[in-house]
Write a structure and sequence with these properties.
Length: 127
């Protein structure tokens, strides 16, 4: 274990911890989502060391929501993913400062095909 992100957390006697998942390698680091009692599910990163494992960026703009990053892809030198709050498509250059929503409207799953990045959105979500 590199770091105990949510130590001592139990529910009905069972330890559930930070529930890390959706691991994605980018720029010699691994990005993933993990949950804490104070931040809910957010984007975390590790370089493989305890000190290099930390919450990368708070993706939430609404109190009480979770960022829950999913569907990571690398395209054109950037990391792209979907943030669950508002289902926005995010773009990152690998730094917290260079990580921001790319779309102002909801985006579905993103895929790379024929050297182009595609994402799905429905007309009703644009209203």
């Amino acid at each position: 274990m590199l770091r105990d992100i949510q130590p001592g957390t139990t529910f009905n006697g069972f330890a559930y911890g930070s529930q890390p998942r959706y691991f994605f390698g980018f720029q010699n680091k691994v990005f993933f989502n993990a949950k804490t009692d104070t931040t809910n599910t957010q984007l975390w990163v590790t370089d493989g060391t305890k000190l290099g494992t930390y919450q990368f960026k708070n993706l939430v703009t609404t109190a009480g929501s979770a960022g829950s990053p999913i569907d990571f892809v690398e395209w054109n030198g950037a990391m792209w993913f979907q943030g669950l709050e508002g289902r926005k498509l995010w773009k990152s250059d690998g730094t917290p400062q260079g990580t921001a929503p790319f779309t102002l409207f909801p985006a579905g799953n993103s895929r790379i095909w024929n050297n182009a990045l595609y994402f799905i959105s429905s007309p009703s979500s644009l209203a």
